[in-house]
């Protein structure tokens, strides 16, 4: 650990927060055409920052959409190379009226900085920039080689990132990737995220009569598409959350006992309180933590059929449909799972209706890195020290597509050093980030960049 | 049969059609406040008509909504009394642009009269008025006593009819009721409708988390309400259309062999062609005609949950709901069936969600009259003779609430002499009524009023 670097961060804290506020004030909403210039402006902020602290090669790379910023500092001979990924675009801020302060006028209240992007992901990107600055300004160099890749389209699907990564595989090659775009399981609870789920999806459409029919005049002749759909859906999963589609679990990695232990040690959310359910419902044979982190799931995301207004309308609906997504674990191939589901659904259609399945084109494989990998152990140690608390190791039920892409393309460990908290209101009004995490997080990053030097 | 009456109808045909056109030209749309005066005007048309032909006691009875017309002619000593019910209000006519001629400017094309209300129900009410006129003008009297009750709120639920019937039970007492507000199974195919189904309904609501949740972060902890709903719905009916709720069929009248024969002799619709389904799906052990006419049904009318837009949204929906209605057969009590369903659904809720059931307040018992009743046999004979074709006896999967009310209140046979056809476009643009049915229908009614005289 470099005392001078930590001191630099402390001494420059106010100025750095000022710079962060400047970054957050740019409304870089990637999904809104009206903010195209602002997105570019946020990209320029990153590029200028890198240049200013001494990165030699910094470029704003044009894409078919918003540009991405690439910069590198490669003068740490014999040291490993880190690929640092993040994004400078943000979610829309509406509904504006629900914000207590302006989304693009950062405000500090109760030890938190409030602004769109404070946690996701400008705030966390900025922590890296500040730490890189601290090294350059105090030691004149970085402990490791660093390739920085910050995109402007994460919130709209990273459509142009993947082609860029593929095309520039050589240029981007690294020993490990570093991403700070996630969170801790709880405020102040250091967390090592070592696995993510993959996903696949589809939509089932059941077509019955060519129009809605009178339920009295046709009931008994015409199969009800909504009932047919219910039978199909109920045949996919049993009452104890076990997916009943043959082969669904076949390739799923067995859950090792030591990982089960890690997962069950991680603090769990009190779901009854946080989301208002009567009780949790994990798959039989597994705990809630195990199911969320390491067992595949199948969820209905939406149902639609017939009359949905007030009161009664006595019809047999013309059609019924359901959207489904699965979260997958290591070993499962999204394409194979989608194929299994499609065959299962299409091969046994209920009598009297036509069943078709539309495949969701996006998919992702699950990602997992060995929780005992030294790169993760070191990160965990830094976290434990800075936050004064033992780090928990968790896997996430969600997916971060870029992690899977990096894994597939470069086959390198991805270190997910996330400093967000469950109270950050990502994608919602009043997004915030605790300054305590800002300070301690930078301490962790400073230590980590140093420690990683010995881990090639 | 009275030749003079039939001759009168023939000789006065053009004038009568002119009067019918006058009746149809009144836009008596009961659901639209703007047409309140028109509804009253149509009521006056009926009242004036009755007075003109010699009904002594004719009144426009005020109600909390639109008035109803009551008139009586009770001078046929020793003859039975008929209660003739119909309605002079009509459905709205929009979308107007889909009509080939103005909905309230009757036009005759290809042997049909086109206008809103031509079949439902002004056209059929008028046929009775014309026949009553013919008797009064030729014979100076009617063959039976006639109580006429024509309401102006049928298309909006007859809310004020029932209290009126109950309050005036004495005044309205009769030996049988006569209603022409239904149709034949096919154009030119005389049809005796001798049964209707009852109905009951409910809405199932499955409540999960207090908001839509991220399917990755919560999948495995939180029960999916849409999947829970699918399990509930699939548990109500099996793949062969047999309702699996215990007790559902318990009180349902067994289907006698002779009725099965009648039903299977009735011409069936070619559903594959008419509504575009791959094949029909009746309950196991029953034909389509049997199921539609005489077996109870349970239908999902609508489903709603979560995300229903384009593409994918990876959520666990906060809730899911389904609207259901049952069509019931004689013997089944709507309240008891609703109770059975509610208990079945509420007593075994899936784990992790809250299930509630909202009861549909409207319900009706099924109605059935013995198809061998002389009042029906005579009607069938008149129909066969006028249309030159054997009359088929059918029961209808739908409900006509007023029939059940009359049955309950007066316990008299209801003769449903309907002359509409499946091509009449009831409630749709280009409603029409074939003049051939107008002519032959009046012939049937003329004969029937006469024949009924001997059937007390």
TrEMBL record, chains A, B:
One of its GO terms (molecular function) is metal ion binding. One of its GO terms (biological process) is proteolysis. It comes from the Bacteria. InterPro entries: Cyt/Met_Dipeptidase, Peptidase_M20, Peptidase_M20_dimer. Keywords: Hydrolase, Metal-binding, Protease. Residues 194-352 form the Peptidase M20 dimerisation domain. Pfam families: M20_dimer, Peptidase_M20. NCBIfam families: PRK07907.1, PRK08201.1, PRK09104.1. This is Acetylornithine deacetylase/Succinyl-diaminopimelate desuccinylase.
